[in-house]
Specification:
The chain has 451 residues and is an alpha/beta fold. It folds into 2 domains: 6-22 and 252-450, Enolpyruvate transferase domain (UDP-n-acetylglucosamine1-carboxyvinyl-transferase, Chain), CATH 3.65.10.10; 26-235, Enolpyruvate transferase domain (UDP-n-acetylglucosamine1-carboxyvinyl-transferase, Chain). It has helices spanning 26-38, 52-63, 99-111, 131-139, 175-184, 202-214, 253-266, 288-295, 330-336, 359-369, 400-409, 437-450, and strands at residues 6-8, 16-21, 42-46, 67-71, 76-80, 90-94, 116-120, 143-145, 155-158, 165-169, 192-196, 223-227, 230-233, 246-248, 268-273, 298-302, 305-310, 320-322, 344-347, 373-376, 380-384, 392-394, 422-425. The strands form 6 sheets. It has a 4-stranded mixed beta sheet with strand order 2-15-17-16. Strands 4-5-3-14 form a 4-stranded mixed beta sheet, with helices on one face. Helix 5 (175-184) runs parallel beside helix 6 (202-214) and helix 7 runs parallel beside helix 11. It starts with 5 loop residues before the first strand and ends with a helix.
């Protein structure tokens, strides 16, 4: 059922109970889609995410001539790769606001042996950083033109393959810039030597290297770290193949953060099926489990996933943390800070000002709207809890993480009688990564009433 433009949230009046089946990881699904398209045999992605971002990626690959078939009932995507070739010699690709699709497809088109490819997205995508990737690809011999503003979408790629050689890249604004380069570098005619400038979120880069290795036929390392700031990527004529023809996608750790946080709001106990504890699996955002523990929640790794609990009346403590390694989850915690005891300081988030929206400024505005005292700096938010102001409508800025984070806060029974007190504008924006989020949230509320 379509969501309304304005969604009043019905709070939980009883503790949350039940199991949560999480969608597949967006980051892993889009990486695996690209690498499967570069394989020399068919690959089936199991447990794949079906959302706006992954559908944009799949549609773009089909426009490039690849066979991509989706089985939503089985959560599988079947991709028939071409061994490093791009079948279509011309294509217009639309990436919406999907940063992974934008960066990964730009790199793929630049690595193609021939063809003219035009890429564009929604207006906000035209503000997201691309220039470091474009400069690196140009240094490897790519012909990339910017019909609008230099360094931003829209782009026109006149493909002639990549020569290889030495490049410098600043991925401090987005690790996707480096991940995109790494995944297509093996297609170059010679080895690619990458030197980083600035900092980078290593968890996503390590994820990329692990997935590339899983698609490497003889397990010889494609990506070699020379030192803390430099890599060599080995050029190979047909670098990618997936043994057995299947690749399993982990449940999304960023999506898990909302349901790790929910018991802190409602009390109760949830089992997050397949979710992994901090430091496990390929996704850095599993580290949010430790944030929940630090606030006062119980998180235990069990046979079926993570069991998370919080007793009503327990203490929820404010904290001071660097969120740079897990910045996709900072909004999850920030939205809950009105319920914490004492101030909370969230650091390391300056780069999120250039994501779907300026997430730092947006969160400061929405928390202030709810009556909180917020101190905003370039790289941090400090929130001092105040009594929540009821009757407000949260602006989501077309950003899925705003909708879902405040969706969890809205489960708090502010009045003590189950009356809605918080409204979400444009809740359907969560379709970017988690289309059935609010449906799942309501199902858990109904289950809490039935138990």
């Amino acid at each position: 059922m379509p969501l309304p433009d304005l969604l009043p949230l019905t709070p939980f009046t009883r503790p949350a109970r039940g199991e949560v089946v999480l969608p597949g990881s967006k980051s892993l699904t889009n990486r695996a889609l690209l690498l499967a398209a570069l394989c020399d045999q068919p690959v089936t992605l199991q447990g794949a995410l079906f959302s706006e971002d992954t559908q944009l990626m799949g549609a773009a690959l089909r426009a490039l001539g690849f066979i991509v078939r989706e089985d939503t009932a089985r959560h599988e995507i079947h991709v028939e790769g071409r061994g490093g070739d791009v079948p279509a010699n011309a294509a217009d690709l639309f990436v919406g606001l999907a940063g992974t699709a934008a960066r990964f497809l730009t790199a793929l088109c630049a690595a193609a042996p021939r063809g003219v490819y035009r890429l564009d997205g929604v207006p906000q995508m035209r503000k997201r950083p691309m220039k470091p990737l474009l400069d690196a690809l140009r240094a490897l011999g790519a012909d990339i033109r910017c019909p609008g503003v230099e360094g931003f979408f829209p782009l026109e790629v006149h493909a002639r393959g990549l020569a290889g050689g030495a490049v410098e890249l600043d991925a401090s604004e987005s690790s996707q810039l480096l991940s995109a380069l790494l995944m297509v570098a093996p297609l170059a005619r010679g080895d690619v030597h990458v030197t980083l400038r600035g900092s980078v979120r290593w968890s996503y880069v390590d994820m990329t290297a692990h997935v590339m290795q899983a698609f490497t036929p003889d397990q010889a390392s494609l990506v070699r770290r020379r030192d803390a700031q430099s890599f060599t990527v080995t050029a190979r004529a047909r670098p990618f193949r997936r043994a057995g023809g299947t690749y399993a996608i982990e449940p999304d750790a960023s999506a898990a953060s909302y349901f790790l946080a929910l018991p802190l709001v409602t009390g109760g106990r949830l089992t997050l099926c397949g979710a992994q504890d901090a430091g496990q699996g390929l996704q850095g955002d599993t580290g949010f489990a430790d944030i929940v523990r630090a606030v006062g929640g119980g998180v235990v790794a069990g046979a079926r996933g993570l069991d998370v609990s919080f007793a009503r009346g327990g203490v929820r403590s404010g904290l001071d943390r660097d969120f740079k390694p897990i910045s996709d989850t900072f909004l999850t915690l920030a939205a809950l800070t009105p319920l914490l005891q004492g101030p909370t300081r969230i650091r390391g988030i300056a780069h999120t000002r250039k994501q779907e929206t300026d997430r730092v400024a947006g969160m400061a505005r929405e928390l202030t709207r709810l009556g909180q005292h917020v101190i905003e700096t370039e790289d941090a938010l400090e929130i001092h809890p105040r009594p929540l102001r009821a009757g407000e409508t949260i602006e989501t800025y077309h950003d899925h993480r705003f909708a879902m984070s405040f969706g969890v806060l809205g489960c708090h029974d502010l009045h003590g009688d189950g009356r809605p007190w918080l409204t979400i504008r444009d809740p359907a924006c969560c379709a970017k990564t988690f289309p059935h989020f609010f449906e799942l949230l309501e199902a858990l509320r109904q289950k809490s009433l039935a138990d």
